[in-house]
Specification:
Strand order of the largest sheet: 2-3-1-4
Shape: globular
Strand content: 25-35%
Largest sheet: 4 strands, antiparallel
Distance between the termini: 6 Å
Radius of gyration: 12 Å
Helix content: 25-40%
Order of helices and strands: EHEHEHE
Length: 86
């Protein structure tokens, strides 16, 4: 099972470096735009006009670490967690 974080950025945030390289390496999480996610097979991601967002996909077992990083980030206005069956 995978966890998908739908991350809504605060106005003016660029979305770069939401996660440190160490976190990316340790969790093997992938950070993508909604367009990139659709290209690699994540279907059904709703469009949200007027929002700037990033998607982060990780193994369910590493989701807690990703959530902690997002909660601590000044770039993140809010996020939603989705569970995806492989």
């Amino acid at each position: 099972m995978w966890t998908l974080f739908e991350v809504f950025l605060v106005p003016g945030a660029l979305g770069g470096e939401l996660l440190t390289q160490e976190t990316l390496d340790d969790t093997q999480a992938q950070v993508m735009t909604p367009e990139e996610a659709a290209k690699v097979g994540f279907q059904g991601i709703p469009e949200r006009p007027g929002t700037q967002r990033q998607l982060i996909v990780c193994k369910h077992s590493t989701a807690g670490r990703i959530q902690n990083a997002l909660e601590a980030s000044a770039q993140v206005g809010q996020f939603q967690v989705h569970h995806v069956d492989s």
